[in-house]
Amino acid sequence: MKYPNRTMITDVVLTVLVAAGAASPAYSQTCALLEECGDVDSSGSVSSSDALKVLKKAVGQPQVMACSCGETEPPPPVCQAGGIKVSVSPEAPAPADIDGLYAEAFDCTESEGGNTFGGVDSTHCYRKADGSSWRLWNTGCGWQIGRVEGCDGWVDYARTYAGSCGAIPPEQLDERALTTDSYKNNIGDPIVGIQSGPCTP
């Protein structure tokens, strides 16, 4: 009885493995290495001293080790001088992501929701510090929390004022109005669960 040539068997196995590899989807690595794994002393390379430190650690001897293998993430937003913090409780009738830190800005445009009614500076607003489209705007009648939403344009979810804008109190036209827990919806009804005020750097 003749047995197949070993070279032929090897060729067949390799062909099958290559075909299987070509048929399977390619996956990219999602872990961004901050340093080489195994480099527990942060020397920039993996050496026998790393192995010794790991062994000592394994048997209970105190060792200072530093090894990081994870995704790099941007630091969370921080309060900036002059910024505003908005807090939203779960029961508030507003999207939860309104909540957070807002940085004072002077480069906003009317297309983002600004208004010149009452002579306010439409470039002055507060931008959500996480880079999203949420804004605090003074409409010339008082402040609104909202964002531009597709074809609907500017949509406000909370206001510091209600009623006619004929008699605007001065405190509604500057930052004083943003220290409040008395927000209202666009028909003037009180909104429970939203408050704002200066953040602390």
Write the layout of secondary structure elements.
Elements: H1 6-23, H2 48-58, E1 84-88, E2 100-105, E3 125-128, E4 135-138, E5 143-148, E6 154-159, E7 183-184, E8 190-191, E9 194-198
Antiparallel strand pairs: 1-2, 1-9, 2-3, 3-4, 4-5, 5-6, 7-8
Provide the β-strand percentage band: 15-25%
Give the spatial strand order of the biggest sheet: 6-5-4-3-2-1-9
What's the domain count? Answer: 2
Stretches where pLDDT is under 50 for at least 5 consecutive residues are 6-10, 12-33
Helix content: 10-25%
Number of E strands:
9
What is the terminal separation in angstroms? 86 Å
> Based on CA inertia axes, which overall geometry fits?
elongated
How many distinct helices?
Answer: 2
Arithmetic mean pLDDT: 77
What composes the largest sheet? 7 strands, antiparallel
Structural class determined from secondary elements: alpha+beta
**What is the chain-wise order of helices and strands?**
HHEEEEEEEEE
Radius of gyration: 30 Å
Give your account of this protein's structure.
- This protein is of the alpha+beta class and 201 residues long.
- It has 2 domains: 30-73, no CATH class; 84-198, no CATH class.
- It has helices at residues 6-23, 48-58, and strands at 84-88, 100-105, 125-128, 135-138, 143-148, 154-159, 183-184, 190-191, 194-198.
- It has a 7-stranded antiparallel beta sheet with strand order 6-5-4-3-2-1-9, with no helix packed on it. It has a two-stranded antiparallel ribbon with strand order 7-8.
